[in-house]
Structure formats: C-alpha cells, structure tokens
Amino acid sequence: MLPGRSLPAPAAASPSRWTSRLLLSVCTVLATGFPALGMAQPVTATALITLAELPPTPIHAAELMAPERPKPQGRTQPVTARPPARPSNALNADPQTVEARTAAAKAAKAAKAAEARAADERIMSSRAADSRPADGQTACADHEPASQQVLDALFGGDAAFAELARRSPAEAFRCSSLFPGDGALAALRDAVPLAPFDAVGAADQLGTRPGGEDIIARALDLGLLTRSLEGGMPFYETRHELRKRLPKTDLRALEIHAAKALAASLARDPAGMAPKIGALLDDMVDDPPADRFRITMAMSSEDLLGLIARIGPQLYTSSLDGLVNILRIQVKLEKRSFLTLAREERTRPLWAEFFVATVGGGRAASLFGTNPAIARELMRESLRALLPADGKPPAIDTAVVIGALADAMDLDSPPIRAALEDELAARYRAAGEPPAKAGLQDVSIRNGTGDTPARSSGTGDTPARGMIGLAGSLHAARLSGRAATPAFEAERFPQNHPLAALPVLSGERLFRNGINVQRMTFYDDPDGRASFRGFLRQHRAQGWALHAQSGFAVAISPERHGRRIIIVADIPGAGDAGRAAAWDWMAREGLAPSIVIHRGHSYHEDATMTEIAPGTALVFWGSCGGHTRLRSTLERAPDALVLATQNIGVSTVNEALLGIMEERLLADGAIDWNAVWKEARGRIRDRRFASYKRPDQDSANLAFRAWQVRTASH
Length: 714
Known about the structure:
This protein is of the alpha/beta class. Among the domains are: 432-496, no CATH class; 504-695, Rossmann fold, CATH 3.40.50. The chain has 35 helices and 10 strands. The longest helix is centred in the first third of the chain and has 30 residues, at 95-124.
C-alpha cells in the first residue's frame, strides 16, 4: 500500500449521511460482520475460568515465572466415587425422564455460558475510575448516537422535530423511530421531496408504524429519485431497499442514471470520489458480481485507471480484481492498450500508482500480457514513471517501488519474465557504471542475534540505480532454480546490491525467564469492544487465566514446556488512564513486551505506535491498511518483524492467526513462519487472509531493510 494513502475521515467524505456511514463502517462491518467460513476454532477440554469479584488480587510476575505450583501434600482433596454407569436404553427410557434430562443439560450449558458472559462484562467494566464515560447517548435505529440537533428535537416537541425535518431531513429519517407521534409523521411526509433516498433507507423504521408505508411510497416516485441522485451514490447506498420495492424496469432505468452521475462525479472530483467508490465496491462484496461492478459501466478506461491508481491498494482483492478485469475489457472496446495508457498525457502522471496497485494486487500477468516486445516497452515506461529523476525525490516510497519492480518480474511466463529482466538490466547499465571495487565497504546488518557482515555498493550509485539493483537482488533471490537471462545475470545484482539479513524471532528475543510478554491494544468503539470480547472468549476457551486490573486486563496461558505467555490488553473505554496503569504494572513487575499487537481501526494506529520500543521483536498490525505503517514501525524498532494487512483487517482472521502464533510460541519457543503460514492456510478459509503479508516474504519489508543499509553505507 502506498504510504499516506488512506480513506478520508468520514466527516469530510461527503455531506451525505449514507456516504459518511459507509466510509466509517467499511472496516467495522466487513471485518467483524462476516465469520471466516470454514475456520477451525481451537477446542480444549478445560473448564471455563471464572474471575474473582472485583477488585482482583494483584498479579506478581515473580509468581508467573515459577513453574506450575505442586498441589499441597498436607491436604488431600475429597474424591467423589461414582457408581458404574448403567447401560442406557433409549428405546425403553421414559420420554418424560429423557426430556427432563435434556432440559437440565441445556440449562446447565446456558448457565455456564451466562457465567462466561458475566465474567467478560466484569472485565469490560473494570476501567480506571477516572476514565468511565458518561451515560450512553440515545441511539437511533442504526445504533449510532443521536446528534445534538436530534436530542434538542426530542425535548422541543412536534414543532422542533418539524424544524429538524426541514433543516436536516437525513437526520430526521435516520432517527425517526425516536419520534413516534402523528406530528412527527406529518413532518416526515413533508420532508420526502427533500431526501427521498433517506426515506427509503429508513423503510425498516417507517414500515412498522401507521402511515409509514405511505411515506415510503411517496419516496419511491421514479422522477423524484432521479432528480435526487446527486453524484449517484444515494442509489447504491439504498440499493437493497430499492431492489425490494421498485419494479425491475424502474430499477434498471434509475441505475443507468446513477452510473452516469457517478462517472460524471468521478470526472469532476477524482481524488474525492475515488475513495467513496472504493468503499462502495468493498461494501458490495456479497452482491452478485454483475450487480457489484455495474457501477463502472459508464466509466472510460482513463477513469478506471485513475480509480485503481488512487485507491487500488486499499481495496479488497476481489474489488481490485474486478476493476482490473473491467479495465482490460474497456481498453479493448476503446481499441487501446496498457502501453498507450502509460504514454498518454492524462494517464501518464498516474501510471506509477497504477503500476504499484496492480502489481501489488497480484495482477502483473494481466498488465504485461503475452507479447514479449510489448511487455518490454511497458516495463520501460513503468521504470520511467517509477524511478526518481536526478535530484528529485521519488513520488512513491522507495521500498514500495523496489518491491513492486521485483514482484512484477515474478511471472510464470518465461518469455515475459525474460523481457522484463532484460529491460531492468538495460536500465541498470544506463544508470551508470558498476561501482569500483575500491568503493565497496563493509556494513553491519542487525539481525537480532549479532552482526552479519555484508557488502554494499559504493557511493557512486544514484538512487535510481540503487533501487533497480535492489529490485534485481530481490528477484534473483526468488528465482529458486529458474534461469534468468544472460543480460540479467551479467549485472551480478546479489553481489553488488546485497539484501539485508532479516531479524530472527529466536527464543532469546521473545522470552525472558520462560515468559513471553505481549502488549495488545483495543479501543473504545463498536469494533474494539467486539474484538475485545472475542479475545476474552478465545482465551477462556483455551484455558487461559483472565485477570481484570484497574483499567487493563491480563491473560496468562497455561504452562507448556516451561513457557508461558502473558498478554497485557487494554480494556475498551479505559483510555489513557488504563494504558498508563498497564505500563506502571509492567514496570513494577519488570516485564517488557517483545510483541505489540494492534486490534483496532487504522485511525487508532498512532496511539499504538507509541507502544513500540526499540527492542520490540514483532509488531502485528491487524487494522485496515496496516502495511502503510511499515516504515514508521521500523524507524521505531529497527530489528522488528512486521506482520500487516495490505488492505482490510478482519477480526476473525486476526484471532485465528494470533492463536496459531501463540501455539507455536508455547510449543517451540520461537516463531517459524513456514509452520505458521502452513497451518494458517489450512485453518483460515476467509479469502481476506490473502491480504496479510508474511513478514519474511514481504517485498516492501525486505526492500525497506535493504534500502536502510544502503543509505547507512552512504
């Protein structure tokens, strides 16, 4: 993902209430609302752990570092002897007895589940005393808090609501369930011409009250809806209700107008509209593909290329794939090619971003096609767009460019791969003579366990030549026995531009006195609270001990092979006071986290960044677009490995992947990424797992480290 590229804040996205909600919820709903299909859940036979009544007994690290305590010898626990079980005969059993036993078993199971939920709530409520929020605000039917103007109308009577409906009809329809009176109904009826799509969006609320269906029918007037399309987004934001209530011919006619309005809006304001369209495509992930991508039917190839360039790295893989497929079709219909788009005046300035998005999304083969000569020409234009001109900084992060160039050459087609290798080698030669042997110098590359000598090119390299050289080294490392072209081999990229050795997640870095300490951040929003409850459920089911402290929670694993894991987690709502309390407790107990895990939206990442220390060994960004934090993470912790998402972070994937890593830590005392990824592919069926970047194979990660070494050597 391109650094600095992120969806804009919802408040600034659009005056449309539906657009703001969509942009805010693109991660919340999609990341937490759909379970990972087929995902295997850890199962243990241990009983649920119940928490003591608050306040809890203080936890001392010295006790945790000791092995499992032996059972007291002075007292023996009474053992209840049970008579041998009698063979059951279900056919002859009394039906009433069987029914009673079944009911008792269900009641016991429900009681145990209720006990677990109560324990979770006790932890959730154990925030620091000075960080408790005020009483909850009145919520509307969409579960979002009512705005101040809605609250004012609640206390102002019918006249106040009528004024609200005139000034802010979208808010009036959103919170219409809070105003059940006849006066409010009349005001909503009068507000339909001002906001018909908002009236349709409130159909679930309106349909349950007398007179509500009449309001919905007024809003479904085709002429009124067509005149109210604005930029086209309102149609797509209410598409599900419209499909249920409009005749097919009317729906199709309205959709054609909406697609044209959307294309016109994109042409007028491409930078502002692209993120909204991208969020919409991701929100339509479960719609039939024919419906999902029909929003692009009025867009030209130039519009589509610009859309991919601006928001491609942030999209779901399926959204990006669909856009690339449609672009390929549109290019053929317009009798153009990717090569012409790379050279044309309107699209050439966006080609670098488009290249990175398309190649990073795994579509390099679609980009370069099957003609080696054209592929080489396209590589030449791409290098010209990606590499910095003399004396000018690159338009895109250096590590991202290096990684994209290496990924572009990692193709299955030998002729196309050879064409790209030859063009890279030719551009490398043109950038300057190889560095003199006298200019080579030794540099030290930190790998977490010691200093490894490596060779670095001399100071005669230009930035462009160094970027090409490192891309060549990355590609050479991935050939795995496949032959490269003689021209590519002749440049000796691995020798002239060596890659930095990756840090090793050894037991020495991860454990101290048999304890691995992890810091996990949660935040006070619906996604954060849901993720925190999932964290409690998962670890309780695995037999971990859960302790509620004042403002934070501590999860302690069972001992295995003389090892334990301690996770110090935020309690959503505890705020800065809870985080300070967590760090005070860790300081008193002499605990330093070797792993930092972010469990929240991307707009909370700055707060988690302060948790990363120079000695941090692993950082897990489970948020949307966590990959953009690679550079800032490694600047704070140079020897850390980074596991992050390319686009959407999903709570169910986070839980499964972190659970696998915990199992490997306890079993092996280290993290072997081959073992972790093999198990993850077998257990995680969610397609969005593909956006999680394996730390030891992430092109941008490897390129950034290599570029750091090159910069230091100069």
